[in-house]
């Protein structure tokens, strides 16, 4: 007989992203990624890395929303505003800001104007690259970018979209896990990441263990 008493349910999908992230990680690693040249990473490395980054930042958004719901906050804040208001001394704000800027660079495909040439070994060599501000994000982007390296200032994440690569995905994923474990420590009703398991290389393992070993 089915139970007839209603039960509570909250539509948070964050945990359902763990296995897709790990599938992307496993596939990316199997492609033997080489990292970018001065202009771009390979098509596959760039695409899989960007996908991992997007889903990782969505984890942060999902669980900061849940945290505010559990707290009973009357107004939903953006993840960065939530961290700034509630955990301003945690040390995460500026790093998370860089993660969200990178997410935006991918999701909104920020536009840079660049020039390059092929050298005698048929390698792509960058001459110049400048972001088109009208197509390249908001004040956060201008705050975190280092135009000389075309990366973020703290975590050194590639902001030139075609150069996004495995190392960027690993940094974002590790920083995401670090922040979510911090949030779990505050209250595991916000997020309970530490025991979550995934399938990786045919084995059932903890999500955080896979990420720690990257």
Q: What do these coordinates show?
A:
The structure is a single chain. The protein is an alpha+beta fold and 214 residues long. The chain has one domain. 46% of the residues lie in helices and 13% in strands. The protein is built from seven helices and six strands, in the order ααααββαββαββα. It has helices at 18-30, 43-71, 79-86, 93-107, 139-144, 166-186, 207-212, and strands at 112-118, 124-131, 145-146, 151-152, 197-200, 203-206. It has a two-stranded antiparallel sheet. It has a two-stranded antiparallel sheet with strand order 3-4. A two-stranded antiparallel sheet has the order 5-6. A hairpin with a 2-residue loop joins strand 5 (197-200) and strand 6. Helix 1 runs antiparallel to helix 2 and helix 2 (43-71) crosses helix 4. It starts with 17 loop residues before the first helix and ends with a helix. The model has no long low-confidence stretch (mean pLDDT 93).
Number of helices: 7
Q: Which sequence of SSEs, written as H and E, runs from N to C?
A: HHHHEEHEEHEEH
Mean pLDDT, as a whole number? Answer: 93
Helix content bin: 40-55%
